[in-house]
Design a protein that fits this description.
single chain; alpha+beta; Chitinase A, domain 3; 10 helices; two-stranded antiparallel ribbon; 44% helix; 13% strand
């Protein structure tokens, strides 16, 4: 079975673990002081301890988990990343033994890595201060006040091919036939047919205009239609109408945190750039027809406005 971790070198490196560990750490006292409160020792190479926080930091750097997300020490992911951290430390120890750390190229790369780490620490510190519970709740309340509260409907549908079939369905319903049974028997809409035509709760903005017009004045319990659809005609039964419920704070929290984080980083960079003397010495690329305007690796555009907190409409089966 091939190794499951990143470098795929465990079997080879294990043969020299003792020698490399001694060269990495040398004789001395084992470092058992946790770098962070509540930290747990995950592994040891010689007298060098690998902490759970080291493993989690590596998982975050690889994008395997998000900042602030937990990483269960008993999970396969933790074990895989731990193996990768061990491999990294063994490789680094061997590189030092070969004096590669004195290479000018290594010095430039180490300096660049140090700048990235310091920059990340500054961002983390700034975000930690700005993105707190008070800020999250404040933005949520502000957006809640601005959100427009619309109305939600719950309805069922029976979709058939012709208007005459739809009229026949209405007559059957008027004599007491079960809407749910007729939907399962007659409807041609596969998304809702087998659950009795149930569309769930939805807001008018997600429905075709013909449905909105039919539902506008309909009361719960009433049957409306036929309504023309893209594939035929629909008969609708209104189950319920209610004011749309705003999204809860906990449901909105991830979106709010992302916005506040982005906003804080943007403000920090704008402030730093404003007080720095920056000269761009390389001109823009030539305008080559058909060439992309930005690298394929460019990150997606960040949000420019605060997140709305109005409840997203339920996604019912798409009307035919």
């Amino acid at each position: 079975m091939p190794p499951s971790h990143g470098f795929g070198l465990t079997k080879f490196l294990c043969l020299g673990t003792v020698l490399l560990a001694l060269s990495a750490c040398g004789p001395g006292k084992i470092d058992d002081k946790p770098p962070e409160r509540g930290d747990v020792a995950a592994a040891r190479i010689g007298n060098q301890t690998i902490w759970s926080s080291d493993v989690k930091r590596e998982a975050i750097s690889q994008g395997l988990i998000g900042q602030g997300e937990p990483l269960d020490a008993s999970s396969d992911l933790f074990r895989r990343v731990l193996d990768e951290v061990i491999d990294q430390k063994l490789l680094a120890a061997e590189a030092r033994r070969r004096k590669l750390d004195t290479n000018p190229l290594a010095a430039r790369r180490l300096a660049a890595a140090q700048e990235r780490v310091l920059g990340d620490l500054l961002v983390e510190q700034s975000v930690e201060k700005a993105v707190n519970e008070g800020a999250i709740r404040s933005l949520y309340q502000d957006q809640l006040k601005q959100a427009r509260q619309s109305e939600e409907f719950r309805a069922r549908q029976i979709v058939v091919g012709t208007q005459s079939e739809a009229e026949s369905i209405r007559k059957l319903l008027a004599t007491g036939a079960s809407f749910e049974a007729l939907a399962m028997e007659r409807s041609i809409d596969s998304a809702t047919r087998f659950n009795g035509g149930d569309l769930g709760y939805f807001t008018a903005d997600v429905m075709p205009e013909a449905y909105v017009a039919a539902l506008k004045s309909a009361m719960p319990g009433s049957v409306v239609g036929p309504v023309k659809t893209d594939v035929g005609y629909a008969v609708l039964k209104i189950e319920d109408r209610r004011p749309e419920e705003p999204i809860t704070l906990e449901a909105a929290r991830p979106q709010i945190v992302r916005f506040l984080t982005y906003d804080q980083v943007r403000e920090l960079l704008e402030r730093l750039r404003k007080h720095a003397k920056i000269q761009t010495l390389i001109g823009p690329p030539l305008d080559v027809p058909g060439a992309p305007s930005e690298p394929a690796s460019a990150p997606p555009e960040a949000p420019a406005a605060a997140p709305a907190v109005a409840a997203p409409a339920a996604k019912p089966g798409k009307p035919s």
